[in-house]
Amino acid sequence: MSGETPPWVKGALRIEAAVLRQVEADALACYPSEACGFLFGPADDPPLLDEMRREDNEADKYHRLDPETFPRTSKMYFKINELRAVRALEEGAASGRPLKVIYHSHCDAGAYFSQEDAATFASGGTLMWPCAFLVVSVIDGEVRDRKLHVHVPGTNGFRESPLTVIE
Amino acid sequence: MAITVRIPTPLRTLTGGADEVHAEGATVGAIIEQLEANHPGIKERICDDKGNVRRFVNVFLNDEDIRFLDGLQSPVKDGDTLSVVPAIAGG
Q1: What is the CATH number of the domain that holds A45?
Q2: In a domain? residue A2
Q3: In chain A, which residue's Cα lies nearest the Cα of B58?
């Protein structure tokens, strides 16, 4: 992970409509469990998101191993293999196709950034991964909303940011 | 056993900016103790008051999360890589 803050961390991103449809299809396919994955785009167009890659939600694997530390199942929690994320980040940076956004879905809940999300992705005012975050809301088996969230520097808080869908 | 330890960006303030350091020990726990001796403050960022790996931190020995091995008692061997990685999780 680089020590520099990349521009997409600040939000105001653009996503190709076909890519957003793929993300939403993943959210629907995983429902009533949470979906998760990465969004990539060209380094020379920082706001653009033009590729998605779904990741396995490992929440149930961790819950089975240690339900005290990981009390939630995949219906209310997502967990990505972090070593795969490190490699995706490094490979993306090396190839000029950086990982810009981590997405996940909420099942029968809104597209807000939860307290659990914030507690994981920021600590001591520091953003833990150099990314923005997309949350997709699926309610009763239908995608109802999606929102982009970005870190507020120097805090452990996050705020909504515009996400423009382009054809 | 001499191994490489990969340090995530948020903890590099404790390693003088280094993204990798080297440490010796027979187990993951011993490696973390040596990390603490060389880079004071790093252990409390990895482990909680009970000495367990924090929920928002993952420690991988090569490709496996040590929670699925023997935790901090997991044995290490020369040439292994230990990766400390912040969690990607929520809900």
Answers
A1: 3.40.140.10
A2: no
A3: A82
Cα nearest neighbour of A76 on chain B: B91
Q: List phi, psi (to 5°) of B49.
A: -65, -25
**Are A104 and B90 in contact (CB < 8 Å)?**
yes
Q: State how far Cα A46 lies from the chain centre.
A: 17
Q: Name A164's bridge partners.
A: A14
Separation in Å, CA A149 to CA A41, A54, A82, A135: 17, 19, 20, 8
CATH of the domain at B79: 3.10.20.30
The beta-carbon neighbor of B60 closest among A59, A80, A83 is A83
B10 touching A (Cβ < 8 Å): yes
Res A4 pLDDT > 50? yes
- The pLDDT tens digits of the residues spanning A13-66 come to 999 999 999 999 999 999 999 999 999 999 999 999 999 999 999 999 999 999
For residue B91, being part of any structural domain is answered with no
Q: What domain range is A157 assigned to? A: 7-166
For residues B40-45, average pLDDT: 96
Domain residues for the domain of B63 are 2-86
In angstroms, the CA B87 to CA B91 distance is 13
The shortest CB-CB distance from A77 to any of B8, B10, B89 is to B89
Chain B stretch 41-60, residues whose beta carbon is closer than 8 A to a beta carbon of chain A: 52, 55-56, 58, 60
Question: In this predicted complex, what is the ipTM?
Answer: 0.93
